Amino acid sequence: MLRLDATRIVAELAGEAPIIGGVGNNTFDLIPFDRPRNFYMWNSMGMASSIGLGLALVRPDLRVIVLDGDGSILMNLGSLATERASGVANLVHVIWDNGGWEITGAQPAGSPFGVDLEAVARGCGFARTSTVDDLDAFRRVFAEAISDTRAWAIVGKVDPGDSPYRPSKNCTRLRDRFRTSLEPEGDGPG
Ligand SMILES: Cc1ncc(C[n+]2csc(CCOP(=O)(O)OP(=O)(O)O)c2C)c(N)n1
Hints:
By secondary structure, this protein is α/β, with parallel strands linked by helices. The protein has eight helices and eight strands, in the order αβαβαβααβββαβαβα. It has helices at about 5-15, 25-30, 50-60, 70-75, 80-85, 115-125, 135-145, 170-180, and strands at about 20, 40, 65-70, 90-95, 100, 105-110, 130, 150-155.
């Protein structure tokens, strides 16, 4: 499964849900599906889950999507436990598993050594989890997750390969556009 194709499915099904992109490729492949409610995180490896959790807790009226990387969640593994401990219900945490840190030279990490991130999420208390490795299965599972009322963790097995896309490096503008899009009646400056 190509991460870009799976990200397209997320964008198609997201509706009003804000999407938090994780470091590097996880954000970069969101760029073709640009919208004010996409948050493009630069460099803060591992923090997409924490940003998504904070947003989900203050905005229980929205489902919040996190697009994470396997290498990133390994760096902030405790955030899976924090998500459950918080009682959050409106979070859909997608983890793209390409077997390591692709963008810094494809150093292997996690699944090539037997790490099962879905099992980790389950062990942290997620009641709704799935691991999928093709687009049809991903579409089915993601559609269920986005329309559910419980928190989900989905591990999407994706092929190696870096994204060619890049967001602006004006982080202040990215933040402000995202914030404005979440204000009542706000759709952001576009
Ligand atoms: C604290 C920290 N360490 C290292 C990096 C460098 N870095 C940026 S992206 C990345 C790999 C992220 O892996 P993953 O989330 O699995 O995405 P992938 O590159 O595999 O698509 C690394 C090591 C960083 N940005 N921050």
